[in-house]
Amino acid sequence: MHHPIEHFPEDRELEQALALLRVAQRVTVLTGAGVSAESGVPTFRGAGGLWEGHRIEDVATPRAFRRDPGLVWRFYNLRRASVWKVQPNPGHFALAEMEQRWGADSFAVCTQNVDGLHQQAGSQHVLELHGSLARVRCTVCEYRADRRGEDLPPLPSCPQCGELLRPDIVWFEEMLPADVWERAVEQTANCECFLVVGTSGVVYPAAGLIDGARAVGASIIEINLEATAATGRVDVALHGKSGEILPRLLAMLKGESGAAATGGIRA
Ligand code: BJW
Ligand code: ZN
User: Fold this and answer.
1) If I label 116, which of 78, 86, 97, 220 is the partner at 20 to 30 A Cα–Cα?
2) What is the 162 CA–ligand 2 centroid distance (Å)?
């Protein structure tokens, strides 16, 4: 169905979201694969959520890596190569600009994404809950390094000890990096408005931040193409593309009309 810009279907919900954002002194955002979808990074679940017939749960575990490191590295080397080519989209840029409005001390992005696109868009206060595709670490020694943009061999080895390297990614059944997680919990406990963007909300402990925000009485706004596991726990659900809704919210915050703000954005 075609909706003319003047009758954007979410207008009432957008106004509600705007009102919640306007009164918040501190804002925390939880992002997932959906924010990068419009940059061309595939999401994990739903259509296209398989990799050569493997479910993410079967490739992204320590057991899978022990069983067949070559298979797992093939998956990561392909994803690394494709991520160097993509660019942030208007959703990433809108969040970076929101951070400037609130100030980096009062605005944090807790991301489950490993693509680095929030930082590339200019966000300073980014907490990478699930690690980074750019980084590798040794399976034996303390070696850890940013190897962004580099093509790695099929089974890369550690420059310090010669043992096998692995992606610095949090796999299923692994703990999140303790310092990053602590800071995410703290940002959530201290926020007054919590944005949940482009995540299915099924992977824990990240999805638990939503409950953390509720527990401290923060208002919760969800932006997603569709209803998710989180929708029942939010105050306002905005259905649509984050690359369109976030810039629109930003424009409304700045006092521009929503319609004028969409001028530069492709439908
Ligand atoms: C748009 C859009 C647009 C599209 N605009 N929206 C049973 C057994 C074992 C473990 C568990 C278990 N039950 C629970 C667990 C714990 C487990 C877990 O949560 N599992 C559930 C899946 C059941 N969690 C863990 O294991 C975590 N660790 C842990 O708990 O440690 C303690 C422990 C120790 C020992 C045993 C058990 C526990 C670690 C979780 C690490 C997750 N890592 C991954 C893979 C990284 C690999 C990689 O990237 O290469 O991280 S999983 C994968 O899911 C990835 C993502 O960050 C994460 C979240 O996915 P996300 O971002 O939500 O993406 P999608 O695809 O699900 O959703 C996209 C959304 O966007 C959709 O809603 C779309 O509608 C929307 N969208 N386009 C707006 N344009
Ligand atoms: Zn090593």
Assistant:
1) 220
2) 6
Residues 171-181: tens digit of each pLDDT: 999 999 999 99
The pLDDT tens digits of the residues spanning 12-45 come to 999 999 999 999 999 999 999 999 999 999 999 8
The count of C-alpha atoms lying within 13 angstroms of the C-alpha of 138, restricted to the half-sphere facing its C-beta, is 12
Same-domain status, 103 and 52: no
Residue 90 CB–ligand 1 contact under 6 Å: no
User: Is there a domain that residue 98 lies in?
Assistant: yes
Confidence of residue 259 (pLDDT cuts 50, 70, 90): very low
Mutate which of 173, 222, 239 for ligand 1 pocket (most atoms within 8 A of beta carbon) = 173
Residue 258: inside a domain: no
What pTM does this model have?
0.93
If asked whether residues 221 and 101 sit together in one domain, one would say yes
Q: What's the rounded mean pLDDT across residues 57-70?
A: 92
DSSP 139: S
- 19 C-beta neighbours (distance < 10 Å), count: 11
Determine whether 239 is an active site residue.
Answer: no
Q: How far apart are CA 145 and CA 167, in angstroms?
A: 10
The residue segments making up the domain with residue 227 are 11-41+87-130+176-253
Query: What's the mean pLDDT when you consider all of the chain?
Result: 92
Write 153-157 long-range contacts (CB < 8 A, 24+): 154/70, 154/73, 154/74, 154/77, 155/69, 155/70, 155/73, 156/73
The pLDDT confidence band at residue 104, using thresholds 50, 70 and 90, is very high
Give Cα 229 to chain centroid, integer Å.
Answer: 16
> Are residues 228 and 102 located together in one domain of the fold?
yes
- Domain closes at, from 169, 194, 229: 169
